[in-house]
Amino acid sequence: MSPRRYTIDRSKGVLVVEWPLFGELSRALALRVGRDYDPELVVGIATAGVVPGAVVAAILDREFASITVSRRFRAEHVRETPAVLGAAPAEARGKRVLIVDETCDSGATLRLAVSALVNIGATEVRTAVSFKTGTYEPDYHALATDSAIILPWDREVLLDGDLVPNPLYRDVEARAPDEG
Questions:
Q1: What is the pLDDT averaged over residues 41-51?
Q2: At 147, is the secondary structure helix, strand, or coil?
Q3: Is the pTM of this model over 0.90?
Q4: Which of 14, 26, 27, 137 is deepest in the core (most CB within 10 A)?
């Protein structure tokens, strides 16, 4: 898998998410879901959605599975539209399902995941994201923002055996958020 390729629009700001904030947002997301919906299965969208998905599933004490829907996974170039790159989990058949992803802008990835789970026979499917960044309205979100988001598991990468700041964000993090 190639590293993420985000275009950062500094005029909208950059939100650098540390692990404690990620944990609190995952907790808030699980509470929002749990107060309104009782999923039997939580499905994280691979790759980045499996992290908040697994945390939400653990907090809700629910079974966890994943599905790969991506513009980037196993691609030399970022695709214009996402693609379902793995089968929907068979354990979703006949169950109420919550799909979790890290962010949501246009909703294209979530809509594909919902379709895949409905097609496999899930009885009800709802969506949740850590960060709502666009116009698409998932059923649940922890935080809405226009800012570009740098996730804690994406800030550093392993290069030549050393954990180093992700080169994709070197320029972004070197400048303060108000330095446009």
A1: 94
A2: coil
A3: no
A4: 26
What does 78-89 look like in DSSP terms, one character per residue?
--SS-EE-SPPP
Greater confidence (123 vs 13) lies with: 123
Please give the biggest Cα pair distance in the chain: 51
The stretch 33-61 carries a mean pLDDT of 96
What's 40's domain CATH number? 3.40.50.2020
- Overall number of domains in the chain: 1
For range 84-113, the mean pLDDT: 92
| Sign, CA torsion 19/24/28/33 | positive
Domain that holds residue 94: 13-153
> Locate tokens 């059923």: which residue?
139
Stretch 44-69: mean pLDDT: 95
